[in-house]
Amino acid sequence: MTLKRNVLIFHLGALGDFVITWPLALTLARIYPQSRVFYVTHGQKGALAERILRVESMDVEGGWYRLFSEEPDPPAPAGKALAGAHTLVSFLPDANGRLAANCRQANPEASLLNLSTSMPDAFGGHVTEYLNEQLAAWPAAQTAASQILRSVNERGLLAIPNSSGPVVIHPGSGAARKNWPPEKFAQLCEQLRKDGRDVRVILGEVELEQWPRQVVAQFESSSQVVKPRNLLELHDHISAAKAFVGNDSGPTHLAGILGIPTVAIFGPTSNLTRWKPLGPRVRIVSGELDKLTVNSVLDAVA
């Protein structure tokens, strides 16, 4: 009989959605201290969770997709990890129930919990509250999750922000409709530098691929521009910051949960009540993005 020591968390969403699940991973590590908690996710996200949460990870490209097929047969080490699991938590859509059926076939003894961050319109709370409601049938986990969430919001995951670090700015996101205009971010950078602040601008693949060259050049003319090659490099830049400014995006959620003083800019298409970043030092500037002034963001940074 295989010893059941593993907890597997399946997640394939974007970075911001991924960060929202971290309190649950910490919860599972607390209530199962003798178990190994794994994220089954994209390689970069798994590496980030390993560094920050001290959990383990397995790359979803390692044959896990076979759990959605009619003849599931995930190769080792995926199959071995699944067989050795006592708890499976899935954030993956499973409309036809095939993933659940295949997991039960591969390991009928494991408990399987399907969770979702897609909230019904009638739900009026934060996404973490919605996740906690879904733990109602698991009282020990629900209680522990509430305690850890409170700790994250009071202290963050990084003990002390770098008081001598730069103001780190990420002017993009995965959706243009969420973005404060790049020219206003550039003006913010210029003003911060005039005020004697060290400013570092993070540009990711989306910005470098979609933004006109002159927009990128505007940032390069006034600030140090960094282009992280992966999520670990992104974490290096954010964790070294004195403060962070960004749109409703994955890096902003990461900065918030780490405990970095974070200014999050939310437009009318972003649901602030549901998606405010976790963390103890998050300040929101919200409104019609074209109408939000540089001074209003400067005030929040100050």
Task: List the defining traits of the structure above.
alpha/beta; 17% strand; elongated; 41% helix; 302 residues; five-stranded parallel beta sheet; Rossmann fold; single chain
Content-based structural category:
alpha/beta
Q: Give the number of helices.
A: 14
Please indicate the count of domains.
2
End-to-end distance, in Å?
Answer: 60 Å
Structural notes for this entry:
With 302 residues, the chain is an alpha/beta fold. The chain has 14 helices and 11 strands. It has a 6-stranded parallel sheet, sandwiched between helices. A 5-stranded parallel sheet has the order 3-2-1-4-5, with helices on both faces. The longest helix has 17 residues, at 139-155. The mean pLDDT is 93.
In short:
41% of the residues lie in helices and 17% in strands. The chain has helices spanning 15-20, 22-31, 43-53, 78-83, 98-106, 127-133, 139-155, 182-194, 205-210, 213-222, 231-239, 250-258, 272-275, 294-301, and strands spanning 6-10, 36-41, 56-59, 85-90, 111-114, 167-170, 199-202, 224-226, 243-247, 262-266, 282-286.
